[in-house]
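Q: Here's a chain of 197 amino acids. Please give me its 3D structure as tokens.
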Amino acid sequence: MTLNHKTIAILTADDGIERVELAEPKRALERHGARVVHITPSGGRARTFEQTEPAEHVRADTTIASCDPSTFDVLVLPGGYINPDLLRRDQRAVAFIREFVEAGKPIGVICHGPWSLIEADAVRGRTLTSVASLRTDIRNAGGKWIDEDVHVDNGPNLLISSRDHDTVGEFVETLIRELAATPEEHSNDAAQAGRSR
């Protein structure tokens, strides 16, 4: 599976990012040939966490203000309970996410990441998973919360969601598989899902 033709935005705040939920997708997507750009409000050093314990700082590639969402094919939103809470307060970040939704581009989200999607009104009518504490937030925003390690919602834009840091491996595998799939394969998946309901 190759992602040589994909340019992927990983959007985070400047603080409170679950380390593995940033590092593992970035490393795996790059290993499969994608160009991955880590975007933050400041474009500087961002602090990661190992759950509640501070971990290393990582340097982002650029700022939200410097990026045009139309130049990216895919958006990935890591979690951590601080990061998406900060991100959803930033109107530039919310607008950035909204542009991916309106353009029908794929989005991958994990853990507390759906908070940012909720703020962008991007879960209404969608089925997704997350850390369990967000289930009421997702339902109140018009989405359907499902208790799965990883869930793929095929439309209107591809939405790949995952539970938390413990499921990041499966999240990454699913993300790569789905991004490498052809439109015909996605259509077949959607049809099969429709038959199984």
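Q: Can you summarize the key feature?
A: Residues 190-197 have pLDDT under 50 and may be disordered.
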